[in-house]
Description:
- This protein is α/β, with parallel strands linked by helices and 255 residues long.
- It has one domain (8-131, 150-194, 241-250): 3-Layer(aba) Sandwich (Rossmann fold), CATH 3.40.50.150.
- It is 31% helix and 22% strand.
- The chain has helices spanning 22-33, 48-55, 107-117, 134-143, 169-177, 202-211, 220-233, 236-240; strands at residues 8-11, 14-17, 38-41, 59-64, 75-78, 92-97, 118-129, 181-187, 243-250.
- The longest helix is centred in the last third of the chain and has 14 residues, at 220-233.
Amino acid sequence: xxxxxxxxxxxxxxxxxxxxxxxxxxxxxxxxxxxxxxxxxxxxxxxxxxxxxxxxxxxxxxxxxxxxxxxxxxxxxxxxxxxxxxxxxxxxxxxxxxxxxxxxxxxxxxxxxxxxxxxxxxxxxxxxxxxxxxxxxxxxxxxxxxxxxxxxxxxxxxxxxxxxxxxxxxxxxxxxxxxxxxxxxxxxxxxxxxxxxxxxxxxxxxxxxxxxxxxxxxxxxxxxxxxxxxxxxxxxxxxxxxxxxxxxxxxxxxx
Length: 255
């Protein structure tokens, strides 16, 4: 599921189909929350992250469509992220989904399925291109297309690698918080130097967020949601990061 712009590196001969430093950042976040346990890598691709899990003593399970990588210490399953996942309820301590959700037709249902297979107290770590960054919003304003999906897709040749569902931070938060998860942290793989140029727009964004957004509050609880979301969106990883990395904890309240 790699995009042509994606940076590729190697881990023990396995290509990491993700922007630079994404695997390392995700693993550090996983290790911080879950030092050991059973972890699903979905989509696992060529198995670079699955191999990393095995190397660090996790009980690793990989899921994807197609041929499996040769990692004897891991189990692999045919898993379609657009369908019911082939795992029992409360099967995993964590699910890691790197650069997958933007490629599927039913992202909301995928989050719901993750909520089913992750035990209460477990974690979902999910990454996707950060279209909530100031740079990506500026590109959208000028061209109608976000960063990491800069041009119209070739609809005459649909492919799995197409970014058919670019997801903003508020959308991600809504999907997670309505499916029994609570966001614990928002991070990024890196901030490119060019992104700091867009700090010129930061005062406008700050003022607009404080003046316009509170006006949509329906009640006291909704007002708190708006305040919390606005604060998260003003964090450096969301404002300037290349990839949005979200750590969410399963609280057990499923739809």
